[in-house]
Structures are given as structure tokens and as C-alpha cells.
Amino acid sequence: MGKKETTINKITPPKLPKIVLREKLFDLLDEKQHYRITWISGMAGSGKTTLAASYLKARNYPFLWYQIDEGDSDPSTFFYYLGLAAKKASPNKRKPLPLLTPEYFMGVYAFTQRYFENLCDRLTPPFFIVFDDYHTVPLAAQFHQIFLDGISNVSPDIHIIILSRANPPTVFAGMTANNQMKIIGPNNLRLNINESRKIVAIESGKSLPVETAEKIHEKAQGWAAGIILIAKSIKKNATLSGCLDKIVPSNIFDYFSGELFDKMDEATRDFLLKTAFFSKMTVSMAEKLTGRTDTHHILSSLRRNNVFTERFYTSIPTYQYHSLFRKFLTTRATDTYGRQDIIRLKQRAATLSAASDLIDDAIELFFEAGDMTSL
After folding, report:
1. Rounded to an integer, what distance in angstroms lies between the CA atom of residue 336 and that of residue 328?
2. Residue 39: in which H helix or E strand, if any?
3. Helix/strand/coil for 131
4. pLDDT of the chain along its 375 residues, tens only?
5. Which long-range contacts (CB under 8 A, 24 or more apart) does 84-87 make?
6. Which letter does DSSP use for residue 281 in this model?
7. DSSP 292
8. Nearest to 74 by CA among 107, 108, 29, 40
9. If you ran DSSP here, which 8-state letter would residue 15 be given?
10. What is the dihedral of CA 81, 86, 92, 94, to 10 degrees?
11. Which residues contact 338 (CB under 8 A, 6 or more apart)?
């Protein structure tokens, strides 16, 4: 019974609730030109899966949906479930796709190419193949090269859509350079004010003042899940709309905790909790505050994996956490560290901010630490 349920989950597209159709992004997806692959990347809850599923439904395209997970690091598992998805997409084909058995291991790349050629022969174009949650496969896995070899042999009239929180691994660099892969990134996925208003109306179940919808949009910075969660909170507690400037609904903290923070290793969590006291930071500032020599790697990884971290290309690259994520982190830090530790962290962060000419940030931190002398 458990195996059957897993199989269905991996090859079944999501059921869509009432949503806002993102026509501008649909137009962007329509522009395939010479691209064979579209990579859609963005932070958790930015609407990647909803975008792909709603696009295929609106355009009435036939498609195969495959949800990747850590188990797909084993190529045999990947080909087994992909074969089930192919059977579902083309039930009239009686002969199943081959399994990756031990005798093929030495020639796995040749097996992969033939497998995907065989897969394409079963599908009637125009056809889409969607791979969701690609980020769940570890970066070091052999899967990435095998997967790339496979999709490189897909027929030109069959289009691949890859959904991932992370940017493409380095093995895909050639496809990007050769204009075979188009990337729709976090900036594309960010909701505009009109889309946010429509979502607020759907999720709150009421007609809120325009000013309230705009305030929600601004607070979430166009992040789809944030807008939905705030609107749902207002639906339950109407008084919340009047104090959005000061209060972050608890369901957003629960989201960050369950989807991201609790799944991270302890070292990364500690780094995030300490650096969250910076409104903006350079690598040097974060290194001096945390004492870690791998700060550049951590910040680059957070940005590459779209963990609510932006990088600004100023004369010295500056990083900044999404405001809601930062609020979650500072709240969690207060619950994690002792009062004196928090004061020292704020004082140190303020001193480093002042040294980098981030005077307003330094003033705020010294004030929060109660350090009137330094202020």
C-alpha cells in the first residue's frame, strides 16, 4: 500500500485551488524559440509548481509530471518511476520502458540516452515533461550528469520544464551558454501589486481596503506564500489587518520553520540567527560577527539556493535577507540565545555596520541593545 501511494504522488500533478492566472509568465513560457528546457527557480512558496500546472492546464497541453525527491539520487529508482509516469502518459504502449539493472551500470550514460529517445517515441508532440522539486537531489549526486544526458536527447518538439528552489547546477552551464535552456528566476516569480490584490481577495474571502492589500504586498515583497498566509490570518482574525506594520502572523513563522530552518544543519542555523541582526551585510561583516572563515561560501550558497537571501552588486557585494525571514530569524535568535548574548550580538553588529558606513542600521542596533554611550 505504501509503495502504491509513493508512486502516485511522484507522477501525479498537483490539484489546483482557486488561483490567479499569471498571464505575463504564461507568455514568457510560450516563447520557447530555440530553448528546449525552461528552468524555473525561486524561493520556497514563490509559486513555481502552481505556475507550471496552471500554464499547462490553461494551454491544454498534454504533459508528464514527475516529482523528484532524494531517492532519485539512485538512478535505478529514477528510471523505474519515470517508466511508470511514461506508462500513465501513454497507456496504449504495452511494452514498458527498460529498468536500469546492474548489467547497464557500466554504460549508464548510453542507457540514459536510449531511454529518453524511447520515452520521446511514446509521446505525441507537442508535449511537456515537468520535473518538480529538482533541488532535493544533493549537489554531489551522479544523478545530475545522468539527467542532463537524458534530457539533452529529448525531441525538439517535446519541452522540458524543471522546477527548483535552487539555480541550475554547474553541469547545466553548457545548455545555458548554448541558448538551449531558458531561466525564469525569482524576480520573474515575484507577484506584482495587482496579482497580490487578487490573491488577497481570494484567500481572505472578503473585500479588503486597497491600502490593506498593498500593505500585505509590501510586507511580503511579492512573495506568494507570504501573501497567502497573511491573507488567511486576516480571514481568521480581522483585527490583524490594522497592525500589520508591527505583527507577523505566526503561520509565516511556522512556514519558515517547517520548510527551511528545521531542515538545515546546526552550523547554518547558527550563522543565520547571528547574521539576522544585520539589515544589510558584506561578507567581511558576517565573517567578523560569526568568526567563520567560510562565510563567503555560506552566503553564496544561500543565494544560489534562493533561501530568502538577495545579493546587491554594489562596489562591495552586499547581502540582505527577506524582511519576513529576517523577522523570523531574529525572533528565533531571541528564543535561542540568552539576553546578554543578544545584547552583545547587537552591539557587535552595530559596530560593524557603523564601520561600513551603514549608519542608520548601527543607530537602530545600538538603540535596541540599550547602548546609549555607543549610540
Report:
1. 12
2. strand 37-41
3. strand
4. 344 444 578 999 999 999 999 999 999 999 877 789 999 999 999 999 999 999 999 999 999 999 999 999 999 999 999 999 999 998 887 788 999 999 888 889 999 999 999 999 999 999 999 999 999 999 999 999 999 999 998 888 999 999 999 999 999 999 988 889 999 999 999 999 999 999 999 998 877 888 888 999 999 999 999 999 999 888 777 666 666 766 788 999 999 999 999 999 999 999 999 999 999 999 999 999 999 999 999 999 999 999 999 999 888 999 999 999 999 999 999 999 999 999 999 999 999 999 999 999 999 999 999 999 999
5. 84/7, 84/10, 84/11, 85/10, 85/11, 86/119, 86/122, 86/123
6. B
7. -
8. 108
9. P
10. -50
11. none
Task: Note whether 58 and 322 are within 8 A (CB).
Answer: no
* Helix residue ranges per DSSP H, 61-209: 75-89, 108-121, 143-151, 173-177, 186-189, 193-204
For 28-62, give one letter per residue: b (16+ CB within 10 A) or e: bbeeeeebbbbbbbbbbbbbbbbbbbbbbeeeeee
Strand-pairing partners, residue 41, are: 164
Angle, in degrees to the nearest 10, between helices 266-275 and 283-290: 110
Query: Other CB atoms closer than 10 Å to residue 255's CB: what's the count?
Result: 20
| pTM exceeding the 0.85 threshold for the entire prediction | yes
List the one residue out of 55, 53, 49, 45 whose CA is nearest residue 25.
55
Contact predicate 204/232, CB 8 Å: yes
Cβ neighbours of residue 210 under 8 Å, at least 6 residues apart?
197
> What is the distance between the alpha carbons of residues 192 and 213, in angstroms, rounded to a whole number?
12
Beta strand extents in 291-357 (DSSP E only): 309-312, 318-321
d(CA 81, CA 86): 9
